[in-house]
Amino acid sequence: MKRRYSWSKMVWLFLGALYFLIPLLATLQFSLEEGGGQYGFGSYAYIFSDPMFWDSIWFSLKLSVGTIVISMVLVVPTVYWVHLRLPRLRPVLEFVSVLPLVVPPIVLIIGLLNLYRGAPAWFVGTPLILLFAYVMYALPYVYRSVDVGMQAIDIRTLTEAAQSLGAGWRTILLRVIVPNLRVAVLSGSFLTLAIIMGEYTMASLMLFTSFAVYIAYVGQMQTNPAAALTLISFAMTWIAILSLLSIGGGAGSDEVQIGSRG
Predict the structure, then answer these.
(1) What is the chain's pLDDT, residue by residue, as a tens digit (262 residues)?
(2) How buried is 103 (Cβ within 10 angstroms: 0-12 exposed, 13-18 middle, 19+ buried)?
(3) Which helix (H) or strand (E) is 39 found in, with range?
(4) Are 193 and 72 a contacting pair, CB within 8 Å?
């Protein structure tokens, strides 16, 4: 039986592809211009040879990993316990989780700076202060991913089955619940990575050179390297997406199953 292709759908798909590809191709062309009608990879060589580029990426990656770890350690057990024992607190938890979306980042960071006033120098003078700000900033995305994943599994049945086999709460959470939340955790982790890598306001106000701050700096100084840096950032995002898809593709084989498959 042959599939019927709708020409109207193909046209809209083609127009959608042009909508995304034309700006990228124009940016690529501009990034390769070297003056006098000449093209080359001088802008890319300039970016990759700049130590500030690697330092800013490494700085943002460390903050992203730290934010992901702390967020998951806080959110996963909390959401699990609320779903299992305290379902009446779900509206309260949802309200708290969306507060970082309501409060602008500049207001949030000024409030945190006032809150941390008088804190030890080892905390205020280090990226730790930015790390805890990012944990709050990423809370809506992490919570929503974990909450949706928690609703997709029968945590009560999984918990009771594990308890009947003598498992403790730590074993239940780490070896039963978390494996079934693999896709949700990966989704929240990727969202957090994308947000932290592109966050500018908090890092600039706290005088840290993150990857987003470096992009803004290059954009103010040189236009062609800025275009090259934009494409590099876009490529990094797509690599992260493909990595997420490749890792999450085998999630089903690692999930805990209750009962047998017919």
Answers:
(1) 455 667 888 888 888 888 888 988 998 888 888 877 788 888 899 899 999 999 999 999 999 999 999 999 999 999 999 998 888 999 999 998 888 888 888 888 888 888 887 777 777 778 888 898 899 999 999 999 999 999 988 899 999 999 998 888 899 999 999 989 888 888 888 888 888 988 888 888 888 999 999 988 888 888 888 888 888 888 887 887 777 667 665 554 444 444 434 3
(2) middle
(3) strand 38-39
(4) no
What span, in angstroms and rounded, lies between the C-alpha atoms of 260 and 53?
52
Q: Tell me how far apart the alpha carbons of residues 202 and 214 are, in angstroms, rounded to a whole number.
A: 13
pTM value > 0.90: no
Name the token pair of 55.
């330092």
Q: Is 236 exposed, middle or buried (0-12, 13-18, 19+ CB in 10 A)?
A: middle
The pair of structure tokens assigned to 154 is 């029968």
Residue partners of 147: CB distance under 8 A and separation at least 6: 79, 94
Instruction: Tell me the C-alpha distance between 36 and 29, whole Å.
Output: 14
Cα(54)–Cα(52) distance, integer angstroms: 6
Q: Taking a C-beta distance cutoff of 8 angstroms, is the pair 173, 76 a contact?
A: yes
Q: Is 255 helix (H, G, I), strand (E, B) or coil?
A: coil
Q: Could you give all domains of the chain from N- to C-terminal order, each with its CATH number? A: 43-244 (1.10.3720.10)
Report how far apart, in Å, the C-alpha atoms of 213 and of each of 117, 198, 239 are.
24, 9, 21
Whose tokens are 């700085």? That residue is: 59
Let me know: does 69 contact 142? Beta carbons within 8 Å: no
